[in-house]
Amino acid sequence: MFLDTAAARARHPRLVLLRRLVVLGALGIAHQQLHAGEALTPYAIFGVLVLLPASWLSRRIVLPLAVVALVAGVLLGGGMLLIPALFLLGLTAVRYGVVETLPRRRMQIAVLFSIAAAAAIPAAVWEDATSTAPNGERVAAIAGLIGASAYSTGLLLILGTLFGAVLERVLAPLGRMALTNYLTATLIAVASGPLLGLYHSAHYGRMIVLAVVILTVQAAFSRYWLARYQYGPFEWIWCCLTWWTRTSNRRVTARSTPGIQPQAA
Questions:
Q1: At what angle do helices 233-243 and 13-32 cross, to 10 degrees?
Q2: Apex CA 206: angle with CA 201 and CA 211, to 5°?
Q3: DSSP 8-class letter at 203
Q4: In Å, how far from its chain's centre is CA 15?
Q5: The 3-state secondary structure of 26-80, one letter per residue
Q6: Among residues 90, 76, 205, which one has the least CA distance to residue 141?
Q7: Which domain holds residue 51?
């Protein structure tokens, strides 16, 4: 999706995407110092090695490659090795126009949700029963994919309802500031972890409470921030370095500049 946008603004959109991934990798390396096993660095690496080259391929080639990568990722134990497959599946979805036509695909989404939801609990039980078995990592990868499918399709169905319109008001700001929220959640956890006795512990109750508090604070802060700025703090830095130019971030409103209408989100 970013590549399509960049194609309308730059003569060499893939170079812009490459710079975007390099910046993401740099942020990930810095983040790794506080959060071992963070996701940004592998996203950047697989983005350069898999997603960028695949952008030259036809969608008829990308789809079978995604299936092969998914099977290989599961057989190899899942985890970060599933990222290439998920990237290719995302590229396939964009190439086939799935993202733009989601509102018209509610029946298809409902069928996928029914299948995934029915399989999620048995898969979780299977994962728990084989957690120490030699094939435990493969089972965990399969169960994780099924659970993620149930979660994502279920959320899409909810967002198409009246309640979903309310939920979207909470989730949309969080999503638009996903990078900022991801990084600041680490900072909050690192600062509060010793105070709550979370390090090297199994206090899942405290961890869940902390997660709820972080999400609540971030949801309120994201809504407040985006009412005044176009990008989150780290999103703005990422945008400026991606395009190698300083982008204005503060929103122009009719109150601050007479004759100017507020910009759309």
A1: 140
A2: 115
A3: -
A4: 22
A5: HHHHHHHCCCCCCCHHHHHHHHHHHHHHHCCCCHHHHHHHHHHHHHHHHHCCCHH
A6: 76
A7: 1-100
Are residue 180 and residue 260 in the same domain, yes or no?
Answer: yes
Question: Both 81 and 10 in a single domain?
Answer: yes
Question: Among candidates 1, 35, 3, 36, which has minimal Cα distance to 19?
Answer: 3
| Nearby residues of 113 by Cβ (< 8 Å), 6 or more positions away | 150, 153, 154, 156, 157
Cβ-proximal residues to 143 (8 Å cutoff; 6+ apart), any chain: 120, 123, 124, 126, 127
Judgement on whether residues 132 and 223 belong to the same structural domain of the protein: no
**How many structural domains comprise the chain?**
3
Task: Print pLDDT tens along the chain (265 aa).
Answer: 899 899 999 999 999 999 999 999 999 999 999 999 999 999 999 999 999 999 999 999 999 999 999 999 999 999 999 999 999 999 999 999 998 999 899 999 999 999 999 999 999 999 999 999 999 999 999 999 999 999 999 999 999 899 999 999 999 999 999 999 999 999 999 999 888 888 888 888 999 999 999 999 999 999 999 999 999 999 999 999 999 999 999 987 655 544 444 444 3
Q: Are 126 and 133 in contact (CB under 8 A)?
A: no
- Out of 160, 186, 204, a domain closes at 160
How many C-beta atoms surround the C-beta of residue 36 within 10 A?
A: 7
127 shares its domain with 149:
yes
pLDDT value of residue 262: 42
Residue showing tokens 């990592």: 137
Q: Are residues 129 and 115 in the same domain?
A: yes
Secondary structure tally for the chain: helices H, strands E: 12, 0
List the structure tokens of 191: 């600062």
